[in-house]
Design brief:
The structure holds two protein chains of two kinds. Chain A is α/β, with parallel strands linked by helices. Helices cover about 30% and strands about 25% of the residues of chain A. Chain B is an alpha/beta fold.
Chain lengths: ~325, ~250
């Protein structure tokens, strides 16, 4: 019986919720595999992070070094593969974030391992469920051999919580060879926002082509988001049209979200958008087209001109919150 | 320089996918087949590089059934120079696809490989990353901007990552995968379509390449996900706020 290794992504000295979701999936997998759950943290100055990670009851492997200061696929792949070999790992798990999607397939290729992406359920040590065709089919996939590489959908598992027996921290010195240090980090232009992160928010308000331009996202949708304390999202059509940046895109090829409340404004409900939000607890649709497919899955539909309804909704929410 | 661009034949994204009663595959009757949308973006980027750097050759590669000729012809009509179709009867998993491409890279020797970031049928988002590792090349996935160095020996790639945009500097040869905003793919012109008929489209049987395509994964079954049913319409904004507060208790 081997162990399960979770790759723990971090940003600004913290573990985002998506990392904790990956950790929870890894713990679940370790129970099914019958081995231990290990977590790898790579970076520069990561002692604090490693200690924090151990509080989740997993044994931590910390790889410290300037080569890992910024995430880079080639260097990280070499390090993760090295850990797999040294720590008797039979399954590698990570959240299907931008980093997870970039890294895990590369690790799979290095190890010649079978991989399942965007897994929504771990059935047993070798069997996983994952969506295909924009979520219109759920595939049960069996991976043979060892190791097996799995990225998990961040809305499909709970976040791990601290507690229980604290894990150990082991430092491993791994230096990537020159062949695995070709890419160089130049810069990260972070989108600054006071709003919650899209994949972590309890409420998401998304705008579609119905908003007509980017300015209307600012004039109409942003005040609603702020009144609700919501994250802002967008349909692919709105991104395609250049209204908003792509990192707001909710859908099959964008972000997958499952908040307590999802408000779709001026979104018709294309298959590929629904794939990214249909697991939300409550869905509200505001659209002037009564026939829009979004109404077929919305819990509450309001047929209305969004340019009137959204400001009204913002005011009503403010009144409610003020009360 | 030479740019290799991959092309996959997939069901039209607007197609409603149905699963066969035995749960082994999707119903393919009446499915319209198209080029994977992200692959169109990859081709467009290659064509733009060629427009700036004279002497660039754009080679398309698809793996699949003979019918994938259609999608390769579309890419040739957009302006690519020639195409290769590796004939495979069965769908291959991403690692096998990457190994087949690796073999062809050995003979074609491109300086840049452009792929769509993900195919919209299996939604795996794996092949580009796997290929980069097999070749020992750097990768820049989810690209929204690609700037080649003047010497054509390096590139700066802006990537769509969580929470913003990241820029990487990579030496060539390299693997780049295209995200949505990289460009707006052109339509094939009528002269382009005419010319495409005469361009080279070489077919190679999968077995001739000697790539290890042993499956490591198996789709045991396909199921239709539980359908979410719609609720009801509300008459006004006031009613909406009311139900969200009192009934759904989410605000």
């Amino acid at each position: 019986m081997g162990n399960v290794l979770v790759v723990a992504e971090h940003l600004h000295g913290k573990f985002p919720k998506t990392t904790l979701v990956g950790l929870q999936a890894g713990k679940q997998a370790a129970t099914l595999v019958g081995g231990k759950c290990l977590a790898a943290v790579l970076g520069k100055g990561i002692d604090g992070l490693a200690a924090e990670l151990a509080e989740y009851g997993v044994d931590v492997v910390a790889v410290e070094g300037a080569a890992y200061e910024h995430y880079l696929a080639d260097a990280y792949t070499a390090a993760v593969a090295e850990i797999v070999g040294r720590k008797d790992v039979e399954m590698v798990v990570g959240a299907a974030t931008a980093v997870g999607k970039d890294l895990l397939p590369r690790v799979a290729a290095r190890l010649g391992a079978g991989m399942a992406s965007d897994v929504t359920a771990i059935v047993d040590a070798h069997t996983f469920k994952r969506p295909m065709y924009a979520g219109n089919a759920i595939a049960t996939v069996r991976i043979d051999g060892s190791p097996r590489i799995v990225s998990v959908r961040t809305t499909a598992f709970d976040a791990a919580v601290k507690g229980g027996q604290k894990g150990t921290v082991e430092k491993l010195a791994i230096t990537p060879d020159a062949a695995h240090a070709q890419a160089r980090f130049v810069e990260f232009a972070e989108t600054k926002s006071d709003r919650p992160v899209l994949t972590e928010a309890r409420i998401v308000c998304s705008g579609g082509r119905g908003l007509k331009n980017g300015e209307n996202f600012t004039i109409y949708l942003e005040p609603l988001c702020d009144a609700l304390g919501a994250a802002m999202g967008a349909s692919r059509a709105a991104v395609d049209a250049g209204f908003v940046p792509n990192d707001l895109q909710v859908g099959q090829t964008g972000k997958v979200v499952a908040p307590a409340l999802y408000i779709a404004v001026g979104i018709s409900g294309a298959i590929q958008h629904l794939a990214g939000m249909k697991d939300s607890k409550v869905i509200v649709a505001i659209n002037k087209d009564e026939e829009a497919p979004i109404f077929q899955i919305a819990d509450y539909g309001l047929v209305a001109d969004l340019f009137k309804a959204v400001p009204e909704l913002t005011e009503e929410v403010k009144k409610l919150k003020g009360a | 320089m030479k740019i290799l661009v991959t092309v996959k034949r997939v069901p039209d994204p607007e197609t409603v996918i149905k699963i066969t009663p035995d749960g082994t595959s999707i119903v393919t009757d009446n499915v319209k087949w198209v080029m994977n949308p992200f692959d169109e973006i990859a081709i467009e980027e290659a064509l733009r590089v060629r427009e700036k750097a004279a002497g660039t050759e754009v080679v398309l590669l698809s793996i699949g059934q003979k019918a994938a000729q259609e999608q390769l012809r579309t890419g040739l009509a957009m302006g690519a120079d020639r195409a290769i179709l590796v004939l495979a009867d069965q769908p291959l998993e991403p690692l096998a696809v990457a190994r087949v491409i690796e073999k062809l890279v050995g003979t074609e020797k491109p300086e840049l490989i452009l792929l769509g970031k993900q195919a919209i049928d299996d939604d795996s988002n794996c092949v580009g990353q796997m290929l980069a590792e097999l070749l020992g090349w750097p990768q820049a996935t989810f690209a929204s901007k690609v700037e080649l160095g003047a010497d054509q020996k390096s590139a700066r790639v802006t990537r769509e990552v969580d929470g913003g945009l990241e820029t990487l500097a990579i030496p060539l040869p390299a693997v780049v995968t295209a995200d949505l905003r990289l460009n707006e793919p052109r339509y094939a012109s009528l002269p382009g379509i005419m010319k495409a008929r005469k361009k080279e489209l070489k077919e190679i049987p999968l077995a001739d390449l000697g790539a290890d395509v042993t499956p490591r994964t198996k789709i045991v079954k396909l199921e239709t996900p539980p359908k979410r049913t719609g609720g009801r319409k509300v008459a006004s904004v006031q009613e909406l706020v009311q139900v969200l507060h009192n009934e759904a208790k989410v605000i």
